[in-house]
Model the fold of this input.
Amino acid sequence: MKSLTIPLIPLPLALSMLMSVPAQAQTGEVVGTGATFPAKVYVQWAADYAKKTGQPLTYKPTGSSAGVKGITERTVDFGATDVPLSQAELDKRGLFQFPTLVGGIVPFVNLPGIGAGELRLNAATLASIWAGDITRWNDSALRALNPGLTLPHLPIQRVVRSDGSGTTTVFVDYLRTAAPSQAAAIVPDGGRAQWPGDTLGADGSSKLVAAVKATPGAIGYVSSDYAIRDNLSGVALLNRRGEYVQPTLSAFKAAIVAGALFKSQLEPTSLLNVDGVGVWPIVTATYVLVSREPESLERSSRTLNFFYQSFLLGDRAVAGTGFAPLPITTQARIVRLLTTFKTPSGKAVPVMGTSSAKSTVVMQR
Done:
């Protein structure tokens, strides 16, 4: 456990502000949209925040592309994306970007008699499956990796996201990074991909899970929280250390350490296929986008307060979700940055804890 000094108002004043905020901000509900990857966490954060403050907040998991579009057009208060924008894009759109949490993407299968973690794949075979070059489950390349399994003579049905999905982008990036020759035929296409051959499309992660469950021989990919919640048969993946690894919280944390995530700044850091002991090879941070110079002081204040208070919970904010928290120093850096926003007229956006008083906040590991 570490203690960090973060700008915070004294408790009596904080309580009085909590009581007064709903009265000044009852007009309109804060709305966010975007990535499905962190959706369950954001929905839970929103419920906790509404219970604490009386201020409603809605998050709509519409896909990363929709999140970027929504905040760019200012039709929502914040957008969420698994694919970070470049600084040039942020400047062009007038946006500020910050990470929120880290999770894994899990390839999973529907193979009769084969449970979670039993099927072993490496990057080359996984990419060959998704490129349409390995078409049956008892292919010799798969049998060589799984001598103890009886693989069925079933055709492989690939189920993909049909919407603009950051999960798809990250998954394809992993395939093309870890197995470039085998994945060469898989062409990135924004939040989608051009998959060789016939695939089954699903709009959103929930529908993708349902399609795989309904199709013997199917394979799909989802964020780790879906794999946990729906008890999916995720595969064991070979990492760069030659270890077959399961998609667990400890494996995601190992990737954070090996990839030196946000060690000194908030610039996006790739955690795909990083080299380290116990690392799950398909790990990514997910991001939130907000207006750098918000037009509405009240709506921006409520939006920033939402993330400010969620980050003050530290690691507890993601406990039991299937996601890993950001490094503690990164959480503290974001908390401080959320207190620095101004409107185009130069008026500071009030965020709880921005008084000159200081207090020690214990962010729990």
About this structure: Residues 1-27, 354-365 have pLDDT under 50 and may be disordered. The longest helix spans residues 297-312.
